């Protein structure tokens, strides 16, 4: 791994593990925990958007699939939590595969619509299939996770688990984009035809990334269900899919560190702006539009660029690698 | 009611909603043909159509025909703004970026509508009475006839426009090949601008005629947009007759599915059809298979 990334990761890990010491307030811990869950989904979505050049408006559904599968199987059927999380991931992956195969062969916007449609279907099923899902009032009583005899039943305990997993996913993603697969993906996002001509099976990679990002969303969903112990359909509507995309776009497509920034910022921001809750929708829409119109490469990379321009001494190589693939 | 009459009833109501799906699908096709993007704000145009009509007709008491025209002009204006504003100013002209900008625009329109018209559903009186006609044993609302008639009128008008007028032909040329259109001196920018306006206007018509039977609220746009898109895909994306056929077919299938199978999953059915079409024949019923050019 690149030396700079290594240093960043170590600093990041230290900050993450020290932070709870300074936070007496459980509410702040909860916001951070939700951010960790979001980071997992956003990293997966960013790999899809930044490296496969595809947009999914259905990641809330994959997230919800993970949450509901975990919740229902452990609570109603008495399955053990950890294997169930794995099972949910596999099922969600299979569903994503089934959606991806027909749509990823076509131009980009077919996946957008197909995943949007899928999200609507999942949402309707969550509400209508109330015997199993609990309907609009939600599904309560999901057990806490435990490691051996240690029950993860407080915000502080979950903090370390969720952030460890989210950092693990970040580490894996950073490694992935520097591997052969990652280079193939970067080629694919730059110019699909050129990638094809150099012998990259673009379709296979696109489906692979899509399935992987859906599986990450499912993992995050399962963790969320076991953390909050209560899930309801409202969390998994299209609006959450849009929030996730906004997080990726604010952080910058293709910039994994940007995704961490985007997810943290946009998870915490609405909590700070409690007073303007009714403008939530408007703010998200405006942020999405403004970022896309003026900073299509992302807000975070744009800020970095301005900052690096002011420090003239920065070697050219590092400034380049900050940008990630242009999409 | 016997089963054949019941089915006839479902087909009649399916054709009614199908008409509006057809109009929405046409709106999608217009913009797709000119620019290659999917306009996610299409459903919002329909919602705005209903809302403006209620404002002009019910609240401001402007005569129906004028309200109708004002609404069409207003939503056409929104389409214009969308193209002139964010889409033209976008730094990146990547299709996906532009598509996501329309997603952002749809959220903004929805949020603003919520502030202006509130969260409660609103109704519009039917154009002419509520006494149903009985045709072959099936009850048909007068509004259904209005919807059907106006849809046929709009489709015929658009057909004339695209086949007979110079501007219409120029727009088709842009759809066929943007580069050759530029080379032959067609003002492509103006044609794109025009297709957004037209698309807004067609969306407005769909919203106006649909609202008396379904009521409207700030958040109906998502669902209507998705249904219209499904219809467009079903008929063959970008094809005008395909959009009409897809709209009617989807409306009838949905109505039959809701009546005979399950009404709870009525909305899911449209997307199931969408996914199935994408799976089996992504070019749709009337669409030509697209060759991938390098």
Give me some keywords for this one.
heterodimer, A: 327 residues, mainly alpha, two-stranded antiparallel ribbon, 15 helices, 75% helix, B: globular
Overall description:
The complex is a heterodimer of chains A (327) and B (294). Chain A has 15 helices and two strands. By secondary structure, chain A is mainly α. In chain A, helix 3 packs parallel to helix 5, helix 3 (59-75) crosses helix 10 and helix 4 (81-104) crosses helix 5. Chain A has one domain. Chain A has helices at residues 3-22, 26-51, 59-75, 81-104, 108-128, 130-133, 155-177, 180-190, 192-197, 202-228, 238-251, 256-272, 280-294, 299-310, 316-323; strands at residues 146-147, 150-151. The two termini of chain A are 24 Å apart. In chain A, 47% of the residues are buried. Chain B has 294 residues and is an all-alpha fold. Chain B has a single domain (3-280), classed as ABC transporter involved in vitamin B12 uptake, BtuC, CATH 1.10.3470. Chain B contains eleven helices and two strands. Chain B has helices at residues 3-35, 42-59, 64-89, 95-117, 142-164, 166-176, 178-183, 188-214, 221-235, 240-261, 266-280; strands at 133-135, 138-140. Chain B has a two-stranded antiparallel ribbon. Chain B is globular. Chain B starts with a helix and ends in a 14-residue tail after the last helix. The model of chain B has no long low-confidence stretch (mean pLDDT 88).
């Amino acid at each position: 791994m690149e030396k700079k990334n290594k240093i960043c990761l170590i600093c990041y890990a230290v900050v993450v593990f020290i932070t709870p010491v300074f936070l007496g307030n459980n509410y702040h811990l909860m916001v951070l925990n939700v951010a960790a869950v979001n980071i997992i989904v956003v990293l997966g979505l960013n790999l899809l958007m930044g490296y496969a050049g595809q947009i999914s408006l259905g990641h809330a559904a994959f997230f919800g699939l993970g949450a509901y599968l975990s919740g229902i199987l452990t609570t109603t059927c008495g399955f053990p939590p950890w294997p169930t999380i794995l099972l949910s991931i596999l099922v969600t992956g299979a569903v994503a595969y089934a959606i991806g195969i027909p749509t990823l062969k076509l131009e980009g916007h077919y996946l957008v619509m197909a995943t949007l449609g899928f999200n609507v279907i999942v949402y309707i099923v969550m509400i209508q299939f109330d015997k199993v899902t609990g309907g609009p009032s939600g599904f309560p009583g999901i057990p806490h996770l435990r490691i051996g005899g240690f029950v993860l039943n407080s915000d502080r305990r979950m903090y370390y688990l969720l952030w460890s997993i989210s950092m693990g996913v970040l580490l894996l993603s950073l490694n992935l984009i520097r591997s052969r697969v990652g280079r193939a993906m970067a080629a694919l996002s730059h110019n699909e035809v050129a990638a094809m001509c150099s012998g990259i099976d673009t379709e296979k990679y696109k489906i692979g990334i899509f399935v992987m990002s859906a599986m990450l969303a499912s993992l995050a969903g399962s963790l969320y269900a076991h953390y909050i112990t209560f899930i309801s359909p409202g969390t998994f509507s299209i609006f959450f899919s849009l929030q996730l995309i906004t997080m990726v776009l604010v952080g910058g497509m293709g910039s994994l560190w940007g995704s961490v920034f985007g997810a943290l910022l946009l998870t915490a921001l609405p909590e700070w702006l409690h007073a303007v809750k009714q403008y939530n929708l408007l703010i998200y829409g405006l942020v999405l539009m403004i970022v896309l119109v003026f900073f299509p490469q992302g807000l975070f990379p744009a800020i970095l660029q301005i900052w690096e321009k002011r420090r003239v001494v920065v070697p050219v190589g590092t400034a380049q690698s900050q940008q990630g693939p242009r999409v | 009611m016997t089963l054949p009459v019941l089915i006839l009833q479902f087909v009649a109501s399916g054709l009614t909603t199908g008409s509006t799906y057809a109009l929405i699908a046409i709106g999608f096709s217009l913009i797709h043909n000119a620019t290659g993007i999917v306009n996610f704000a299409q459903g919002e145009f329909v919602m705005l159509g209903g809302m403006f009509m209620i404002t002009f007709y019910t609240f401001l008491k402007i005569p129906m025909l004028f309200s109708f025209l004002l609404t069409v002009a207003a939503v056409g204006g929104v389409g214009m703004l969308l193209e002139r504003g964010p889409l033209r100013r976008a730094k990146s002209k990547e299709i996906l970026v532009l598509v996501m900008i329309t997603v952002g625009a749809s959220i903004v329109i929805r949020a603003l509508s919520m502030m202006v018209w509130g969260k409660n559903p609103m109704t519009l009186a039917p154009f002419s009475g509520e006494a149903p006609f009985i045709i072959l044993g099936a009850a048909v609302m007068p509004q259904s006839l209005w919807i059907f008639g106006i849809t046929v009128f709009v489709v015929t008008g658009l057909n004339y426009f695209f086949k007979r007028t110079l501007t219409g032909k120029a727009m088709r040329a842009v759809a066929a090949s943007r580069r050759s259109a530029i080379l032959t001196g067609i003002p492509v920018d103006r044609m794109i601008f025009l297709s957004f306006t037209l698309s807004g206007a067609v969306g407005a018509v769909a919203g106006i005629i649909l609202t008396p039977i379904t009521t409207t609220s700030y958040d109906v746009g998502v669902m209507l947009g998705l249904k219209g898109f499904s219809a467009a895909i079903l008929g063959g994306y970008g094809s005008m007759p395909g959009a009409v056929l897809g709209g009617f077919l989807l409306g009838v299938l949905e109505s039959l599915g809701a009546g005979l199978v399950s009404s709870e999953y009525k909305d899911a059915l449209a997307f199931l059809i969408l996914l199935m079409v994408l799976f089996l024949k992504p070019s749709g019923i009337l669409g030509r298979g697209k060759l991938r050019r390098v």
